[in-house]
Amino acid sequence: MSVPSTTPRPASANRVVIDAPRLWGGGLATACVAALVASVGVLVCRDLLDIKVVEPPLLRITNSFAANYAITAFLLALAATGLAHLLSLITPRPRVFFSWIIGLFTVAAMVVPFALEGSLKGQISTALINMVIGLSIASLLSAVLSRTVVDAERYQTSRHKKYQN
């Protein structure tokens, strides 16, 4: 009786191929989008809707709340890019783990405003801004990961097919 071989093949040192310059380029573009989301969110809530936005914990780099929000969102997106790169190196399904981590981080960022002093409108507005920042980071970096991190075997197979044609 023959038994199919279920012995896993030894893992090579390079299980994935990471196009790091494009990954970090996508991360930089994502950081710009996240900063713009924060700026536009504050602009819409504060200046258009006349809602005093609750100030979440931010890096205090300037005297401008909107600029500090944008800078914090920018740096968080770069940190998320570093996380995505690390997960690509050490986990079997980096996009799945990345999505969960960023999703939970986003939920936490949405809860924080309700623990701070301010009006309910301000708390809701801040939570919504944080949600859109988190969604932009999660969706954009997930898309970047799908284009810049490839299984080494699939990469070799696609290169081989490319050169055969």
Compile the SSE list and pairings.
Layout: E1 16-18, H1 20-48, H2 65-90, H3 94-111, H4 120-148, E2 149-151, H5 152-164
Antiparallel strand pairs: 1-2
Helix pairs in contact: 1-2, 1-4, 2-3, 2-4, 3-4
Protein traits:
5 helices; 165 residues; mainly alpha; two-stranded antiparallel ribbon
Describe the structure.
With 165 residues, this protein is mainly alpha-helical. Helix content is 70%, strand content 4%. It is built from 5 helices and 2 strands. The chain has helices spanning 20-48, 65-90, 94-111, 120-148, 152-164, and strands spanning 16-18, 149-151. It has a two-stranded antiparallel sheet with strand order 1-2. α1 (20-48) runs antiparallel to α4. The longest helix has 29 residues, at 20-48. The protein is elongated and about 50 Å long. Mean pLDDT is 87; it is low at 7-12.
Order of helices and strands: EHHHHEH
Our measurement of the CA-to-CA distance between the termini, rounded to an integer number of angstroms, reads 41 Å
Percentage beta strand:
under 5%
Overall structural class, as computed from helix and strand content, comes to: mainly alpha
Regarding quaternary structure, what we see is single chain
**How many helical elements?**
5
Strand order of the largest sheet: 1-2
Q: Could you describe the largest sheet, including whether it forms a barrel?
A: 2 strands, antiparallel
The rounded Rg comes to 21 Å
What percent of residues adopt helix (DSSP H or I)? 55-70%
